[in-house]
Amino acid sequence: MTDSIMSKAATMEIPINSNGDTGTLPEDDSLEQAAKLQWSLDEKVGSTRGTRDLQQVMVSGPNLNETSIVSGGYGGTAEGIIPTSSIKGPAVRYNPEFNKRIPVTGLGSNMHHSSSSSSMSADDATRGVAVEKIESVKKWGMNTYKCTKQMISERFGRGSRTVDLELEAQIEVLRDTKRKYQNVLRLARALTNHFYNMVQTQHALGDTFADLSQKSPELRDEFGYNAETQKLLCKNGETLLGAINFFVSSINTLVNKTMEDTLMTIKMYENARLEFDAYRADLEELSMGPRDAVTMARIDAAQQQYQVHKEKYERLRSDVTIKLKFLEENKVKVMHKQLLLFHNAISAYFAGNQQQLEQTLKQFNIKLKPPGADKPSWLEEQ
Q1: Most buried residue among 89, 222, 319, 361 by CB atoms closer than 10 A?
Q2: pLDDT in tens, 281-302
Q3: Is 165 helix (H, G, I), strand (E, B) or coil?
């Protein structure tokens, strides 16, 4: 049908007028309708074929990374060809069921890999911390067991202990000295409290005498003398209280700080001695057993632990010896000064020598606090 229509169109006569111009063609409705029908048929067939080709290309066609894009007009040079592998962007997959394009990108997989790797590293770090804690608890448990065993053996007379007779004697002397100095400190504080109460009583008594001297004209002179005497005693008593407080403060520093620091080092030394004896006994016990491969490995490990604790024990023993020496020198120096202060202040006070008492405080650089300095201010009381 199509061929007949096209042949008819080709054999049609075109009338030409006398001037050589084409004349007006008579309208041929059959030819126009045939052309329109042919055009509609071609459009339907082409669209159907194009849709099928597009589906086949998107489903099983070549990889987009292997294709290229041509830039420029027809017959251009090869410089206009751009490989699609260099174009960055999400890939597209065609779904023929829904006639849609579904983007496929590697970002999700990369994020999944990065998150999984970070989670694995965090798990490894947590696992490492847990293993370290378990190992530390295990070592602490073994060390506690060995030391407890050694302590019980020493207490029941079954185990041997390392003894430094000279150092042990010095430690015992220090502990006895601390007990005696604590007693001196306790008595000095009691004296301070009693003397403070006496000074406060003298101060109140002097104020009472002064008030009575104003209200009793017939005994004005007698009350006035006693008021002046109590005020003078109160002033000297406050000076003596300053000296005694300085004495108490120095003894407290010597006993509760200097001696206590040395005793803490001694306690560490005794713990190191106990650990050293525990690992020494463990090494001796292993050395007396069979000498197979497993036992030899345990002996080597015990030998290393024994050497470590031996070095620790010797180091702390040297520290204790040095601290005991310096403590003795410091104790003699401090007590010589404080005992001289206490003697001179007490003697001057009870002798009624006010100038000597004040000179004693100047000699030892003791500054008295003004009256009411210990009381909190009205702002601090709020």
Answers
A1: 361
A2: 888 888 887 778 888 888 888 8
A3: helix
Q: Is 336 left (phi over 0), alpha (psi -120 to 50) or beta?
A: alpha
Task: Give the span between the Cα atoms of 233 and 222, in whole angstroms.
Answer: 17
Cα 234 to Cα 209: distance, rounded to the nearest angstrom:
14
What pLDDT does 83 receive?
Answer: 47
The encoded tokens of residue 104 equal 């496929």
CA 176 to chain centre: 41
Quote the CA–CA distance of 70 and 42 in Å, as a whole number.
28
Residue 281 near residue 159 (C-beta atoms within 8 A): yes
Q: Give pLDDT tens digits for 258-280.
A: 999 999 999 999 999 999 988 88
Q: How many residues does the chain have?
A: 382
| pTM passes above 0.85 | no
How far apart, in whole angstroms, are the C-alpha atoms of residue 194 and residue 189? 9
Q: Hey, which residues does 83 pair with through a beta bridge?
A: 68
Q: What is the DSSP string of 56-108?
A: HHHHHS--GGG-EEE-SSTT--GGGEEEGGG--S-EEEEETTTTEEEEE-SHH
22 vs 281, higher pLDDT: 281
Residue 365 zone, left/alpha/beta (φ > 0; ψ -120 to 50; rest): left
Q: Which residues, at least 6 apart from 357, have a Cβ–Cβ distance to it below 8 Å? A: 236, 239, 240, 243, 345, 348, 349
**Core vs surface per residue 78-98: b (16+ CB within 10 A) or e:** eeeeeeeeeeeeeeeebeeee
* Predicted pLDDT of residue 380: 46
DSSP secondary structure code for residue 12 in this structure:
-
Cα separations (Å) of 69 from 60, 63, 72, 370? 20, 13, 10, 99
Rounded Cα–Cα distance for residues 93 and 64 (Å) = 10
Rounded CA gap, 317 and 266, in Å? 8
104 three-class SS: strand
Task: Round to whole Å and give the CA distance between 176 and 58.
Answer: 99
